[in-house]
Amino acid sequence: MWCGSPDPHACGVDLQIRMLVVWISRSACLWCGSPDPHWLYQNFDKLHHQTALKSTDREIRCTCYLCTMQFSSSLLENAVNEFARLPGIGKKTALRLVLHLLKQDTGVVQVLGETIIKMRQEIQFCHRCHNVADGETCSICANQMRKQELICVVETIRDVIAIESTQQYNGLYHVLGGIISPLDGIGPDQLTIESLVTRVQQEQTEEVVFALNPNIQGDTTIYYTQKKLHPLGVKVTTIARGIAFGGELEYADEMTLARSITNRQPVENYVSR
Length: 273
What we know:
CATH architecture of the largest domain: 3-Layer(aba) Sandwich
Order of helices and strands: HHHEEHHHEEHEHEHEHEHH
Distance between the termini: 62 Å
Number of domains: 3
Strand content: 5-15%
Shape: globular
CATH topology of the largest domain: Dna Topoisomerase Vi A Subunit, Chain: A, domain 2
Number of strands: 8
Radius of gyration: 27 Å
Strand order of the largest sheet: 6-5-7-8
CATH class of the largest domain: Alpha Beta
Number of helices: 12
């Protein structure tokens, strides 16, 4: 397009950006409706540096050089910008949410705002397992009907909710707050591993179950924590890993398939479940 070469790889410009400009030059711009491709060519360097392309989900987010939203109210604009700061929320989705709130009664919006503020100001973390709680102790640790001698170690609070949803676990939890990842600058001192060791020492814990993600960081965290717990004589286990129910062997990765074969079990045990 710019160098005249029929080979798209011969041009030194980024392929995704070049395809974007060619596509827009054949039709009107999705953001401003301008059919003029010369503006794109003249401002290509700015477009290249200011436009974030995500080939995975085919999202194209443009900044000030491509038709930013025009608001007639600064209050509306500020609200949209604040919603857009949330994870997974773009400007269009934020605008849709804000416009939805504008259609609601003032009381409904006020309750929503007060609920969010109250949640952020009054929520606490359990001093025992580091899960979210309304007080010093969460409802799970305070429940004497649960197995106090069994602790499931998870990475985040979201994992606690996921395991609780299965209704198959009746023990306690311990939230590490992350996993060991040197590349991300996360070491053992930034996690609640020492708190777990102290807890096992003080309580009559019989088994510690690790429910961490099956990757290098997760296995590293399990290995390090297990070394810390080994002198205490507590039983250390991890959740089973293998082919997901309903999955196909053809699409399973080699590591998962290898673990499934190594940790095979009798058919009687599998069928009885």
